Protein backbone atom coordinates (compact mmCIF):
# COMPACT_ATOMS: atom_id res chain seq x y z
CA UNK A 1 0.00 0.00 0.00
CA UNK A 2 1.49 3.34 -0.99
CA UNK A 3 1.69 6.28 1.38
CA UNK A 4 -0.72 8.10 -0.93
CA UNK A 5 -3.39 5.59 -0.07
CA UNK A 6 -3.09 6.67 3.56
CA UNK A 7 -2.91 10.46 3.39
CA UNK A 8 -1.92 13.37 1.24
CA UNK A 9 0.03 16.29 2.56
CA UNK A 10 -0.67 19.69 1.18
CA UNK A 11 1.83 21.73 -0.77
CA UNK A 12 5.21 21.70 0.92
CA UNK A 13 6.24 24.98 -0.58
CA UNK A 14 4.18 27.84 0.78
CA UNK A 15 2.43 30.01 -1.82
CA UNK A 16 4.25 33.18 -2.77
CA UNK A 17 3.19 35.96 -0.35
CA UNK A 18 1.45 37.81 -3.19
CA UNK A 19 -0.20 34.55 -4.16
CA UNK A 20 -1.54 34.07 -0.66
CA UNK A 21 -3.05 37.58 -0.77
CA UNK A 22 -4.54 36.79 -4.16
CA UNK A 23 -6.10 33.56 -2.85
CA UNK A 24 -9.00 35.61 -1.47
CA UNK A 25 -9.36 37.10 -4.94
CA UNK A 26 -9.51 33.70 -6.60
CA UNK A 27 -5.93 32.69 -7.20
CA UNK A 28 -2.65 31.53 -5.72
CA UNK A 29 0.99 31.44 -6.77
CA UNK A 30 3.56 28.82 -5.79
CA UNK A 31 6.94 28.36 -7.41
CA UNK A 32 6.57 29.09 -11.14
CA UNK A 33 2.87 28.16 -11.03
CA UNK A 34 -0.26 30.25 -10.76
CA UNK A 35 -3.71 28.80 -10.12
CA UNK A 36 -6.77 30.83 -11.09
CA UNK A 37 -9.82 29.45 -9.30
CA UNK A 38 -12.36 31.53 -11.23
CA UNK A 39 -11.13 30.42 -14.66
CA UNK A 40 -10.13 26.95 -13.39
CA UNK A 41 -6.67 27.39 -14.93
CA UNK A 42 -3.18 26.40 -13.92
CA UNK A 43 -0.31 28.31 -15.51
CA UNK A 44 3.41 27.66 -15.48
CA UNK A 45 5.52 30.73 -16.26
CA UNK A 46 2.36 32.26 -17.75
CA UNK A 47 1.64 29.31 -20.06
CA UNK A 48 -1.56 27.37 -19.50
CA UNK A 49 -1.07 23.81 -18.26
CA UNK A 50 -3.72 21.27 -19.23
CA UNK A 51 -5.34 19.91 -16.05
CA UNK A 52 -8.65 18.11 -15.72
CA UNK A 53 -11.25 19.24 -13.16
CA UNK A 54 -10.69 16.66 -10.37
CA UNK A 55 -6.91 17.19 -10.22
CA UNK A 56 -7.56 20.94 -10.25
CA UNK A 57 -9.99 20.55 -7.35
CA UNK A 58 -7.34 18.63 -5.41
CA UNK A 59 -4.84 21.41 -6.13
CA UNK A 60 -7.35 23.95 -4.87
CA UNK A 61 -7.96 21.94 -1.67
CA UNK A 62 -4.21 21.63 -1.06
CA UNK A 63 -3.63 25.33 -1.63
CA UNK A 64 -6.45 26.21 0.77
CA UNK A 65 -4.44 24.43 3.48
CA UNK A 66 -0.92 25.08 2.19
CA UNK A 67 1.68 23.61 4.51
CA UNK A 68 -0.89 21.56 6.46
CA UNK A 69 -1.83 17.91 6.20
CA UNK A 70 -4.86 17.18 4.04
CA UNK A 71 -6.21 13.71 4.74
CA UNK A 72 -7.58 11.46 2.02
CA UNK A 73 -10.91 11.41 3.83
CA UNK A 74 -11.12 15.22 3.59
CA UNK A 75 -10.56 15.03 -0.16
CA UNK A 76 -13.11 12.25 -0.52
CA UNK A 77 -15.75 14.24 1.38
CA UNK A 78 -15.06 17.37 -0.63
CA UNK A 79 -14.60 15.94 -4.13
CA UNK A 80 -16.41 12.59 -4.09
CA UNK A 81 -19.05 13.00 -1.34
CA UNK A 82 -21.30 10.15 -2.46
CA UNK A 83 -18.59 7.76 -3.64
CA UNK A 84 -17.06 4.94 -1.64
CA UNK A 85 -16.44 2.23 -4.21
CA UNK A 86 -13.53 3.06 -6.49
CA UNK A 87 -12.48 6.10 -4.49
CA UNK A 88 -8.87 4.94 -4.03
CA UNK A 89 -8.40 4.47 -7.75
CA UNK A 90 -10.04 7.84 -8.51
CA UNK A 91 -7.90 9.82 -6.08
CA UNK A 92 -4.71 8.01 -7.07
CA UNK A 93 -5.38 8.82 -10.73
CA UNK A 94 -6.17 12.47 -9.97
CA UNK A 95 -3.05 12.89 -7.80
CA UNK A 96 -0.92 11.30 -10.52
CA UNK A 97 -2.34 13.72 -13.09
CA UNK A 98 -1.71 16.67 -10.75
CA UNK A 99 1.86 15.53 -10.06
CA UNK A 100 2.45 15.21 -13.80
CA UNK A 101 1.13 18.73 -14.44
CA UNK A 102 3.35 20.14 -11.68
CA UNK A 103 6.35 18.01 -12.74
CA UNK A 104 6.42 16.84 -9.13
CA UNK A 105 7.49 13.17 -8.90
CA UNK A 106 6.40 11.23 -5.81
CA UNK A 107 9.97 10.02 -5.18
CA UNK A 108 11.34 13.59 -5.13
CA UNK A 109 8.41 15.95 -4.39
CA UNK A 110 8.65 19.74 -4.38
CA UNK A 111 4.99 20.52 -3.80
CA UNK A 112 2.93 17.46 -2.84
CA UNK A 113 4.22 15.10 -0.19
CA UNK A 114 2.53 11.86 0.80
CA UNK A 115 2.81 10.63 4.38
CA UNK A 116 1.56 7.61 6.26
CA UNK A 117 -1.09 8.39 8.84
What fold name stands as the CATH topology?
Arc Repressor Mutant, subunit A
> Which CATH top level class fits?
Mainly Alpha
Secondary-structure element series: EHEEEEHEHHE
What's the CATH superfamily, by name?
Answer: Winged helix-like DNA-binding domain superfamily/Winged helix DNA-binding domain
For the largest sheet, list the strands in their spatial order: 2-3-4-5
Question: How many domain units?
Answer: 1
The structural class is alpha+beta
**Low-pLDDT runs:** 1-21
Write down the Rg.
13 Å
Helix share bin: 25-40%
Strand content: 15-25%
Strands, count: 7
Characterize this entry briefly:
The chain is an alpha+beta fold. It has helices at 17-23, 53-64, 72-79, 87-102; strands at residues 7-11, 27-30, 33-36, 41-44, 47-49, 69-71, 112-114.
Mind sketching the topology for me?
Layout: E1 7-11, H1 17-23, E2 27-30, E3 33-36, E4 41-44, E5 47-49, H2 53-64, E6 69-71, H3 72-79, H4 87-102, E7 112-114
Helix pairs in contact: 2-4
Describe what this molecule looks like in 3D.
The protein has 117 residues and is an alpha+beta fold. The chain has one domain: Winged helix-like DNA-binding domain superfamily/Winged helix DNA-binding domain (Arc Repressor Mutant, subunit A, Orthogonal Bundle). Helices cover 37% and strands 22% of the residues. The chain is built from 4 helices and 7 strands; from the N terminus they run E-H-E-E-E-E-H-E-H-H-E. A 4-stranded antiparallel β-sheet has the order 2-3-4-5. A hairpin with a 4-residue loop joins strand 3 and strand 4. Helix 2 packs across helix 4. The longest helix is centred in the C-terminal third of the chain and has 16 residues. The chain is globular and about 40 Å long.
Amino acid sequence: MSALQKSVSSLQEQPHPAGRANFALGGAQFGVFEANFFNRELRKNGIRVNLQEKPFQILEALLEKAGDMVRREELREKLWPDTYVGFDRSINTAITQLRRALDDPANNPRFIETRPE
